[in-house]
UniProtKB/TrEMBL annotation:
<keyword id="KW-0560">Oxidoreductase</keyword>
<keyword id="KW-1133">Transmembrane helix</keyword>
<keyword id="KW-0275">Fatty acid biosynthesis</keyword>
<keyword id="KW-0276">Fatty acid metabolism</keyword>
<dbReference type="Pfam" id="PF00487">
    <property type="entry name" value="FA_desaturase"/>
</dbReference>
<dbReference type="GO" id="GO:0004768">
    <property type="term" value="F:stearoyl-CoA 9-desaturase activity"/>
</dbReference>
<dbReference type="InterPro" id="IPR015876">
    <property type="entry name" value="Acyl-CoA_DS"/>
</dbReference>
<feature type="transmembrane region" description="Helical">
    <location>
        <begin position="187"/>
        <end position="208"/>
    </location>
</feature>
<feature type="domain" description="Fatty acid desaturase">
    <location>
        <begin position="69"/>
        <end position="275"/>
    </location>
</feature>
<keyword id="KW-0472">Membrane</keyword>
<protein>
    <submittedName>
        <fullName>Acyl-CoA desaturase,Fatty acid desaturase domain</fullName>
    </submittedName>
</protein>
<dbReference type="InterPro" id="IPR005804">
    <property type="entry name" value="FA_desaturase_dom"/>
</dbReference>
<feature type="compositionally biased region" description="Basic and acidic residues">
    <location>
        <begin position="21"/>
        <end position="30"/>
    </location>
</feature>
<dbReference type="GO" id="GO:0006636">
    <property type="term" value="P:unsaturated fatty acid biosynthetic process"/>
</dbReference>
<keyword id="KW-0444">Lipid biosynthesis</keyword>
<feature type="transmembrane region" description="Helical">
    <location>
        <begin position="40"/>
        <end position="63"/>
    </location>
</feature>
<feature type="transmembrane region" description="Helical">
    <location>
        <begin position="220"/>
        <end position="241"/>
    </location>
</feature>
Amino acid sequence: MGVQMRTKTEETVEEPLIENNNKESLQEPVKPEPLPKRQIIWSTAIYLTTWHVLAVICTVLYWKNVKLVTILWSLLVGFTGQFGVTAGVHRYYTHRSYKAKTPMQVILLACYSVAGQYRVTDWVHDHRLHHKFSDTDGDPHNANRGLFFSHIGWLMQRGHPEVFRRSKTIDMSDIDKDPLVQFHTKYYWFFKIGLCFVLPVLVPVYFWNESWMEAIGISGVLRFVIFTNMTFSINSLAHFWGTKPYDQRIRPVQNMALAILTTGEGWHNYHHAFPWDYRAEEYGGNMTNPTTYLLDQFAKIGWVYDRKTPSVDLVRQVANKHGDGSWQEVAEPTKSD
């Protein structure tokens, strides 16, 4: 059975929320109060800097002697965690772009634990906030504040006052009521340390006699830093360089290189135009979107269902009305379940 095409009656591209100015008096304009000084979160800044310094040191010291199988294992672990981010906290928990049965939810949470990122509730909240107020002061990683800030700097300092104010508008009731997410949150550190750091290091040591330092340095530290930065790059690079075939009014762009590195998340202009599409791309399931391919395979056994996609007419309408002219209509691919 092919993927059911669902037509939305309205465009889902959200406009930044702009409040009306108070025009009660034109005699003496009120001077706006200066924003509070941005405070660096030194514990987080030191934590993130330390990881990156360690990654460089581990590369220099251990790359020459590490076994090829350990490198391949590290890539497998990294992309497993990436699947937990892309298919899990992003497409499923944040956007609810498809439905998943309990075994699939367990897989998504386990894979996300391998990535070693922060709690599901925090990740989902920040990403919903990002979409609702994208590239404004209400966006936690506002790209208008620069590449470094949108990539990693936003984690190193207190958020803009608008972020805290807009946070109150984000509905998290579905996440708060999800028993598996709450269980994962309760034992967050156990899952993170065990699946992100302990297991990836123990396997090379005990299965093919890799040395402890090579296993820790390459499969542990370097793998974690590289794949974490892949996720960060969607907040940064995918808002700077690329085309805008679907909506040129927004910053997110289409970037094939990022799509390959992030298993399908680099088609960012499309994703912001249609955030509820489970493919995060107009045409999913190929080498530039392996996340979609895997979701389609799980759909064949019934663990993934109700995959949301826009109709071809809606995509055409949005691209012709708001795109930069680079969109080209392609025959809709046929999918079989």
